[in-house]
Amino acid sequence: MLPCLQSLSGSPLFSQLRRSAARSIVVSAPRHIQKPPAFNKETRFTVTEPPHPEWEYGKGLPEHEKVWKQEGDASKLTWDLTTMVSKQVHFLKDVYPLLTSAIIPRPVAFVSTLSSDGIPNLAPFRCVIMCNQVGHNPPMLSVSFALSRRRPKDTRENILATKEFTVNIISESFVEAANTTSVESPVDMNEWVLSGLTMEPSIDIKPSFVRESAVSFECKLYSWQDIFGGSERSEVTATFVLGEIKRVHARRSVMHEDGISLDAGKLRPISRLGGNTFGRLTEGFELPRVSWKAVKDKYELLERGYDEK
Length: 309
What we know:
It is a single chain. By secondary structure, the chain is α+β, with helices and mostly antiparallel strands. It has a single domain, classed as Pnp Oxidase, Chain A (Roll), CATH 2.30.110.10. It is 25% helix and 25% strand. The protein has ten helices and 14 strands. The strands form four sheets. A seven-stranded antiparallel β-sheet has the order 4-3-7-10-11-6-5. Strands 2-12-13 form a three-stranded antiparallel β-sheet, with no helix packed on it. The protein is globular, with a radius of gyration of 22 Å. The chain starts with 5 loop residues before the first helix and ends with a helix.
């Protein structure tokens, strides 16, 4: 779950969500589809030109995107989430499906931890985020936890106790195995056994990383923040964790020729959409970053016209 949503998704009613999984499936799944088509194993990632290569500065929405403009001009629905969350009204029915289907795609990755007693734990999170707002020096990852009244989150408790964890990117090749680790199981249950995935010893920390993952990060706890929710904002409903990346493991087979960056087409990462729907990366396009030196004169011309309106 995105950290910015934790104060909402961490509502006391959130603990009911897992018991109501079928309801969220109904919300997101098209009713007319009885069985989806077979997975297309031949699809490969390709790079195309951007959607509107003819676009010019100051033009806003392209002229031929008429349908998008018409839909934008129509009436809009609005949700007062502050009131809904404080009153604990329609959270499962409206708020959760709304947010998880709107803020997409969300990266999905494993987090591997050890308890203070040495019990291994492996769980998928949607999402683990590279903290660009913190910067790459030091390199950071964030993981967030929506808490339940029924029982503590094993991964959260392990990270706070041992201050170590690994983050492992999930690819198409083993997504079903990865999905099994989301089971809400007894504390002493070993998700590695159920998934059949392989523990690979880390170098700098004790928790293992996933051998099947093409990219893994060894992390140490940098800081954490409890988030208070509920109608009175008096109970801890979520926790936001910052981990400092100490070491990166990556397969040579998923690297670009430069040996530095990864090839998305070879990595084949998966993402989470709304409900039980996952996404795959099949196409991308490149847009170069805009240089102020290149657009300064154009901006000044546009600004004069804007002020005259």
